[in-house]
């Protein structure tokens, strides 16, 4: 207990400089808490054990605070709800459902599985983006060195030799001069584009427009759409399985989905349920859900196994996203190689054409 108090006391000084909690940290904590609850340990003791094992930081301080609140008479879900930046509505509502049903250990296990699968899907998508970004960064750096340091040297050589420059050579030299003197303009343009993008994304209509554009992109749009549907079905299925009311579950999912097009479809489902109708029909009308998804959800409603069907849909879509991500990376590799080959080829030809012309003139 003394250690806990000392830890909290020592860390409170740096509270204003605390960093956020990553999804990986939260997933690991939930998995470990699930294991301790399965072993039959009291929730307060479990929380203090885990807090003691955490690195000093925001999550450790928060867990100690939650443990103190629970020890002081609050329910676990009430204590968690005081920290919405770390524990979202999905997390809190699932814990609340587990407390009400007396199955907190089971709910934590489901929540842990859900978070692990979501984290795995996120890593796949991020991992696919790392390769092209790394290649483009390295290639861009090499290209900048060539344009700023190497091309000016050739420019001096050509001037001393008094060679008439072909059009593409002069074009390359002009580009090199502009890069050397106007590099700050490129940075300004990048900053302006990023600022405009953020302003558009912060507006509801702008976000809807961007999401529409993204979903219509070839390959990448399919990845975003299928990963959003996977998140929707897995989250909704997990909440329903945990005993959360369907309308409350849909509201939680709508707020967490992160895509305005899918969120509008979820809103239509909420309206349909309030009127006593089905889930499948508004999903079909949205045009964003494949027929197989709609039919599986329809069968799930009819058989009373909607939660199981939703999880199956999510599992299938996770596999499809994995295939699409692999395909996208496979397509990017030759495209990047061809693109870099064309750029390097242009530079080589532009630099050597005057030399070839000079050699030919000398041979005449």
UniProtKB/TrEMBL annotation:
UniProt cross-references to Gene3D superfamilies, sorted A to Z: Type II secretion system (T2SS), domain F
Keyword annotations of the record: Cell inner membrane, Cell membrane, Membrane, Transmembrane, Transmembrane helix
Main localization (coarse): membrane
Coiled-coil stretches: none
Type II secretion system protein GspF domain span: 29-152, 232-354
GO cellular component, one term: plasma membrane
Topology term for the membrane: Multi-pass membrane protein
Tagged with keyword Secreted: no
UniProt keyword NAD present: no
Location(s), subcellular: Cell inner membrane
Record-linked InterPro entries: GspF/PilC, T2SS_GspF_dom, T2SS_GspF_sf
Family designation: Belongs to the GSP F family.
Full protein name: Type II secretion system protein F
Species annotation: Uabimicrobium amorphum
């Amino acid at each position: 207990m003394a250690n806990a108090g000392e830890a909290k006391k020592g860390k409170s000084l740096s509270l204003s400089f605390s960093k956020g909690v990553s999804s990986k940290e939260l997933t690991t904590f939930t998995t470990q808490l699930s294991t301790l609850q399965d072993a039959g340990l009291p929730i307060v003791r479990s929380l203090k054990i885990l807090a003691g094992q955490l690195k000093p930081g925001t999550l450790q301080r928060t867990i100690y605070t939650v443990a103190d609140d629970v020890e002081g008479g609050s329910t676990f879900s009430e204590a968690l709800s005081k920290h919405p930046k770390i524990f979202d509505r999905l997390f809190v509502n699932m814990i609340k459902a587990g407390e009400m049903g007396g199955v907190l250990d089971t709910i934590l296990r489901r929540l842990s599985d859900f978070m692990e699968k979501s984290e795995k899907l996120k890593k796949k998508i991020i991992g696919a983006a790392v390769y092209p970004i790394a290649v483009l960064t390295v290639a861009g750096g090499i290209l900048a060195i060539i344009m700023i340091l190497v091309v000016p040297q050739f420019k001096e050589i050509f001037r001393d030799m008094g060679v008439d420059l072909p059009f593409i050579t002069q074009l390359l030299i002009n580009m090199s001069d502009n890069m050397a003197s106007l590099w700050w303009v490129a940075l300004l343009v990048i900053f302006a584009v990023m600022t405009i993008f953020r302003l558009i994304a912060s507006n509801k209509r702008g976000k809807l427009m961007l999401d529409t554009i993204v979903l219509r992109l070839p390959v990448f749009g399919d990845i975003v759409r299928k990963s959003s549907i996977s998140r929707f079905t897995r989250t909704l299925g997990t909440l329903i399985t945990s005993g959360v009311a369907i309308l409350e579950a849909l509201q939680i999912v709508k707020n967490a989905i992160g895509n305005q097009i899918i969120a509008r479809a979820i809103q239509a489902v909420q309206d349909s349920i309030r009127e006593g109708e089905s889930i499948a029909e508004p999903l079909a009308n949205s045009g964003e859900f494949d027929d197989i998804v709609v039919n599986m959800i329809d069968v799930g409603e009819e058989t009373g196994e909607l939660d199981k069907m939703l999880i199956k849909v999510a599992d299938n879509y996770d596999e499809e996203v994995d295939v699409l991500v692999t395909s996208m990376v496979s397509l990017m590799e030759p495209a990047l190689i061809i693109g870099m080959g064309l750029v390097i080829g242009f530079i080589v030809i532009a630099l050597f054409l005057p030399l070839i012309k000079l050699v030919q003139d000398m041979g005449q």
